[in-house]
Amino acid sequence: MASASLAERLAAIAARTDEVAGADARQLEALKTELLGRKAGALTEVLRALPSLPPDERRAVGQRANQVKRDLEAAIAARQETLASAGRAASVDLTMPARARWRGAIHPVTRVVDEICGIFRELGFARVVGPEAETEWHNFYALNFPADHPAVDAHDTLYLDDGVVLRTHTSPLQIRVMNGYPPPIRVLMPGTCYRKDPFDASHAPAFAQIEGLAVDEGISFVDFKATLTWFAQRFFRPGTRVRFRPSFFPFTEPSAEVDVLCFLCKGGGCRVCKASGWLEILGSGMVHPRILRAMGYDTEEVTGWAFGMGVDRVAMLKYGIDDIRLLFENDLRFLQQFAPPVTPPTLIPGSEGGGHPAPGHEAAGPTEARP
Ligand code: 2NL
Fold first, then answer.
1. Does the reported pTM lie above 0.85?
2. Strands 126-127 and 185-194
3. Are the C-beta atoms of residues 121 and 167 closer than 8 Å to each other?
4. How far is the CA of 285 from the centre of ligand 1 (A)?
5. Helix 42-49 / helix 55-90 crossing angle, nearest 10 deg
6. Which among 214, 227, 251, 277 has most CB atoms closer than 10 A?
C-alpha cells in the first residue's frame, strides 16, 4: 500500500537525524541536499506524494512529515552554529598578552597654561584669547614703544604686510580688552607669539606667553606684589621665596622682574639657575599711566598692574626639560611622559584574588605607542 510505504520512508528519513550531530561542514551540506533539497530531497518527495493518499491517512502522515522536517532543520541549524563557533575559537589565542591601552597626554605647555589660569581664576581673572596677526599699532605703539625701539625693527619682528605683524607678545590683546571694556578688568591671556629667533635649545621662533592684567580704581603696588607672590607660592610650592628686581619695560612704570629661589639647589647655585641661586619667572610692573590715559582712563582714579611670562621656559623649569625644541617636535616618546598614571583596577567586593585586570587596567609599564 502506498500509505505504508510513505510512512516507512518517513521513518527511514527520521532515523537519519542522528547523523547530523556528527557531521562536518561538507557532510552537513550533503545531508541537507539529500533529505531537504527542493528538487529531489527525500522528505520533499514524501510531501509531494501526500495528495495521493486517502484523506484520513493524508492528515496523519502529513503531520508526521512536517514534524520530521522541523526536527531535521533544527538539528542542522544547531550543528552549523557549533561548527561556526568552533572555527571562531580556533582563531583566538587566549595566551596572548593584552595590548596596552593608548593613553592620551596633555602637552606640558598646555598643562602649565591651564594650571596658571586655574590659580588666577580663584581671584576672579577671566581667560581671553585673540588674534595672532596684529596691527603694528596694537603690538607696539599703543604699548608706549618708541618708533626707534629695536623690537619694532623688521630684524626681530615677522611682518605680514605693511603695518601688520605676527604678534611678538600677548600685550596687544590687553589693549583690545581695555579699549572694549571699562574697569574693573582682571584678565589672563595665554597665546602663541612670534619672533625672528633661531630655533635652538633655548630659542624658538614661535613661543607661548601668558600675560595678566588688573585695572581698577585704587590698585596699588601692594596689590601687585602680594598677588604675584601668592601666585608664585601656589604655582611652585608654599613658602617659596620670591624677590622683585627692578627692571624696565616700555609699558610699565615701575617695572620688576620676579625671581623665585631655585627649587633645585635651594639658592646654593646650580646649572639650572646658572649659579645665581634664583630663577627668573616673569616680567611685570604697574601699567604705564601713558597707556591708561590713551585708553581714556582717568589716572588719578584708575591704576593697574600687569605681568608677562614665557610659558615654555616655566614648563621647562617645572618638568626639567633642557631643550625647548622638545616642546615642538611632538615626539610621542616625550609626550607620553605627561600622560596621567594608569588607574589601578577596581576590586569588586568578593572577587579578590586571581583573575586578570580588566582591559585598560594593566599594571603600569611601557605603553605601546599607537596614535
Ligand atoms: C616679559 C615681560 C611683561 C607686561 C608684560 C603689559 C601689558 C599692558 C600694559 C602693561 Cl597692556 N604691561 N604687560 C608688563 C610687564 C612685563 O612681560 O618678560 N614677558 C615674557
1. no
2. parallel
3. no
4. 7
5. 160
6. 214
